């Protein structure tokens, strides 16, 4: 008879990663206050005391760790190579961002809308860190050495619009189709740059360069 597979004890990092994956899977589709440590233990196939062993701060510590992991995934959405025209690069980044929103629908809504019983200044800072990282990525893609106030504000406002559109898209049953939403958001980015260009020479030069890129 074939030998049974040998049991392998997980390392500390492997076990922690397993618990975070289980928590993220639950937080993706349920509001944080609806998820208990027992739920996480069951999803990971371990005991509740083991969850406490790795997260002695309980649900709050586990939620913040899961949130940091999700935030890192969101940051990577905008990590696009600096090659080729800007608009296709932006579209590819939005494809990844909207795929994340689609996969983590309920959790994404709870994350951005706040109001959770486990929301703290630390969780708010984690979310804001994602927004700032996204803005830095986009400014890097714009290849502007020293972006001025109006350009920085324009990029940050557009990121806020992307978040709002994503939440509304979830509320509306993920309509319009995601490809249409992506193209619409890209068009909005070009549009807001054009508006700022009428008041800011730096953005005007950028808009002219983007137009030349096609």
Automatic annotation (TrEMBL):
Coiled coil: none annotated. InterPro entries: DesT_TetR_C (IPR054129), Homeodomain-like_sf (IPR009057), HTH-type_TetR-like_transc_reg (IPR050109), HTH_TetR (IPR001647). Pfam families: TetR_C_46, TetR_N. Keywords: DNA-binding, Transcription, Transcription regulation. Residues 36-55 bind DNA. It comes from the Bacteria. Residues 13-73 form the HTH tetR-type domain. Gene3D superfamilies: Tetracycline Repressor, domain 2. PANTHER family: HTH-TYPE TRANSCRIPTIONAL REGULATOR RUTR, TRANSCRIPTIONAL REGULATORY PROTEIN (PROBABLY TETR-FAMILY)-RELATED. This is TetR/AcrR family transcriptional regulator. It comes from Streptomyces nigra.
């Amino acid at each position: 008879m074939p030998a049974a597979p040998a049991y392998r004890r997980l390392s500390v990092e492997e076990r922690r990663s397993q618990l975070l994956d289980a928590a993220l899977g639950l937080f993706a589709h349920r509001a944080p206050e609806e998820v208990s440590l027992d739920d996480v233990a069951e999803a990971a196939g371990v005991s509740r005391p083991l969850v406490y062993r790795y997260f002695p701060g309980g649900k709050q510590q586990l939620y913040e760790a899961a949130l940091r992991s999700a935030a890192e995934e969101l940051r990577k959405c905008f990590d696009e190579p600096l090659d080729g025209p800007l608009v296709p690069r932006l579209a590819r980044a939005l494809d990844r961002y909207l795929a994340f929103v689609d996969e983590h629908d309920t959790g994404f809504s709870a994350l951005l809308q706040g109001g959770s019983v486990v929301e703290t200044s630390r969780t708010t800072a984690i979310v804001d860190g994602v927004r700032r990282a996204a803005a830095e990525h986009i400014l890097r893609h714009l290849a502007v050495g020293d972006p001025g106030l109006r350009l920085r504000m324009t990029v940050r406002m557009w990121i806020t619009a992307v978040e709002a559109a994503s939440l509304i898209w979830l509320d509306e049953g993920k309509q319009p189709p995601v490809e249409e939403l992506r193209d619409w958001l890209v068009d909005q980015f070009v549009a807001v740059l054009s508006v700022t260009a009428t008041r800011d020479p730096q953005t005007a030069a950028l808009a002219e360069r983007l137009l030349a890129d096609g």
